[in-house]
Amino acid sequence: MKFAVEINNYSLTFLGQARKSLKNISLKVREGEILGIIGPSGAGKTSLLLSLNGVIPNDIPAIQEGRIIVDGVDVMEHDVAVLTKHIGVVLDTPSTQLLAATVYDDVAFGPSNLGLPRDEIVRRVEKALQMTRLKGKELRNPFHLSGGEQQSLAIAGVLAMDPPIIAFDEPLSMLDPVGKETVLTVLKNVVRERNRTIIVTESGLDLESTLEFFDRVVVMKEGEVVADGDPEEVVASGVLESVDVGEPQVTALFRNLAKRGYPVKLTTNVDDAGVQLSEIVNHRNVGPLKDSFHVEDGEVVLKLENVKHVYPDGVEALKGVDLEVRRGEMVGLVGSNGSGKTTLFMHAVGVLKPTNRDGRVLVMGRDTRKLKLRDIIRHVNYVYQIPDDMLFQEKVEDEIAFGPRMLGFTAEETMKTVDEMIQTFELEEYRNSYIMHLPRNIKRLVSVASVVATRPSVLLVDEPTTGLDRRTSEKVMSVLRNLNREGMTLVIVSHNMELVGEYCRRLVVMNDGRIVADGPTRRVFSDEEVLKTANLRPPQIMRLFKAVPRLSQHPVLTVDEALEVLLGVAG
């Protein structure tokens, strides 16, 4: 058996730190294998990937122990330039990997540096663009793409280089549901057709998509491997729960049913789960589904009227958007990558203005064209998708204090607000930490805290849980739900349909710069035509119930709702 990667008793300690970030890792990855490395934030997944291609320690100084062999090459004896021919790594922050002025040139950059003939470069670029749904966007500026499109571009760039081994750090976190399926299918084809080896890290929120894709999974916690084996067996063991990564909705449901004595076998597969559920509910009465979601009818606090926006490069991002958001709502804004969601948010906070004269954005009834940015963000503020795009102070306390100070809070009010945010987001141990050294999950908490500190009436949050583990995601969403219950209006952009289904009472769907659906979440997720148009999928638990004839008329959104229905089965 030939191994693409061999890691022998590998430990890693970053300079300036006493604690080891990786501890005695021994791992072999077979040639042609698709390996998933699963673990919560801070488990060491990214550090392990960056050790494979030499970024650690060549660019990030660290003390290494043990040995790593990649594609037959001793990693510790070569620099990144040599290792790039053997392994390609796609990072979780795609914007840091974009180099060229156009999408086409960015994908061509890698193959060009390999010294390939022009015809071969063109062939590879065309194929990579097709595989990642970027065809037609060749002349776009990479930095004008949406976060999901940038992630697709980073993936295309590595696919075009065609190394024997490709490692992806959270590759699906910014992609729409169909985009996730497309990327996984592409990678599977790459393995099948070219015998490539794929390594993918996952913090938990995309397990519904990835578990069936993996040949094998390794589970990490605090720098150590705590499980290694077949995905179904690892999930059944309960280890994902124990490391706080969580489980797919289908698995969580079946684990609950098993505890109640139902004769079910734990699974991650919707089709398998559907067969088992069909047997359970056959010829039995099913309990009712109580719909607690409703649409608010209060004061309109944010309104868009026929808003169009054409960027200087000619891209028509918004094509006549009409939208009303009412006080006290918690709205989910969903749609495929590049559908206009972030551009809409930029209009809501006044960073962008409609490019058509008759388009208007009203904040608390006032036209943003007549308001200064400072006056707008007193009422509507925005948490960016990528924390590093908005965090600029040195330390956590200073970042949280910046907004209140700029809005004229007194020194006493500012400090009181900082203390409150530190407590709410459980950031006490990071209060005086340098932001640039913080892990991603803590940066996300700081980014949300710094905007909530300005006490807006309307909070816009772009992908609040991207790349986070379950524990941090639940913390962020719990804080947001509490703020909503206290009266703050929230609009949340997310590609995580399970999250939207659980937290948002209303769903707005965008596609190609237009709103194509707007209504109660359950009703919108039940509209198959809308979902198909917008490249969306309903939550996994709803898909499961749709697959069972006796349950298909119960569009459940959460595991708790599914249990409510199933435990109502008589007999």
Q: Which sequence of strands runs across the widest sheet?
A: 6-7-8-3-9-10
The major β-sheet equals: 6 strands, mixed
Query: What number of structural domains do the residues give?
Result: 3
- The top-level CATH class of the largest domain is Alpha Beta
Annotation field: number of helices: 23
Q: Distance N terminus to C terminus? A: 53 Å
Do you know the CATH architecture of the largest domain? 3-Layer(aba) Sandwich
The average pLDDT is 92
The H-level CATH homologous superfamily of the largest domain, spelled out, is P-loop containing nucleotide triphosphate hydrolases
What is the general shape?
globular
Q: Helical percent range?
A: 25-40%
Strand content: 15-25%
Task: List unreliable stretches of 5+ residues.
Answer: none
Q: Could you tell me the radius of gyration in angstroms?
A: 24 Å
Under CATH, the topology of the largest domain is which? Rossmann fold
Structural class: alpha/beta
Question: What is the count of β-strands?
Answer: 20
